[in-house]
Design goal:
Elements lengths: L8 H12 L5 H8 L3 H13 L3 E3 L7 E3 L2 H10 L2 H23 L6 E3 L2 E4 L2 H14 L3 E5 L7 H16 L3 E7 L6 H12 L3 E5 L6 E4 L3 E5 L9 E4 L2 H17 L1 E2 L13 H11 L4 H8 L3 H15 L4 H10 L4
Parallel strand pairs: 5-6, 6-7
Antiparallel strand pairs: 1-2, 3-4, 4-10, 5-8, 7-11, 8-9, 9-10
Amino acid sequence: MSTMLGLEALDRTVYQMMLDRPALGVAELAAELSVAPDQIHACLDRLFALQLVQASFETPGRFTVVDPVLGVKRLLDQQHDELLRRQHQMASSHQALVRILAGSGGPAQRADGVELLAGPDAVRRRLERLALEARHEILTFQTDLPQSPTALRAAHESHAHALRRGVAVRTVRPDSIRDDAATVAHTRALVAQGGQVRTVATLPTPLVVVDGTYALVPVDPADSGKGALQLAAPGMIAPLLALFEQVWGAAAPLGGDPAGAGRVPSEQERALLTLLAQGHTDESAALQLHISARTARRIMASLNERLGARSRFEAGLRAARLGWV
């Protein structure tokens, strides 16, 4: 299988060493293997062409390994019709190759359902792998702003793959992203593919939960460079799921909501929202607006739907956040 992928013996050795000892640079790899640095550069060029290594977020100018599952998946995606026809036949051997290349999983530390992922590159690889293996739902709190174009592209690719497989993707971000054009464009593209995005004033911490089984939280919310913890124990996952649903329920939709949450309300709708926020009943608000109580209730039901709100109180909060009242 490795011959089919174009990997030579030295390529495989370099790749495995980068998996096991990610701190090694070109000079160290050359010294360890007793070869010239130019040969290591040639290996890296081939591995980069196969998308098995990529530029490091953590150390500019250096390479880091791509998670084997994701690297092989990208390669298969590029083979178009021929590989699509053979994809099911190759599934078993593909998974076997991934397990071999993955080895022991590198230097991560595990204990009692908690795994330490040290550094941004390790976190990115794990996020990509979880997104690739997700079967039902990916839930995220994304607090970072602004994101680099590279980070936005990486997030878009992993979520797009998941959505194409029928995986639900729900994301909550801070309200401040509404002022960042690049992030809003990314968000609208995600929503156009079936994802759901909402915003709130503040988020408690970055968070990713996959299939209600695995969660990633930062080691230190104030310093993303310290890496993340992957949690797997049900007792750890349950409160994080509850926290996500609580925040999601209070958040306002963003980006391509077909119900039109971003559509500016009419003067009549604004007036009704204002009157109800002041404590008026349907009947008294309708009287003020010279409409029937039934019409007032119908308008309010439409506003609740557009805002994604489950109660008038929630609708009032979201309308205020959007500047409607």
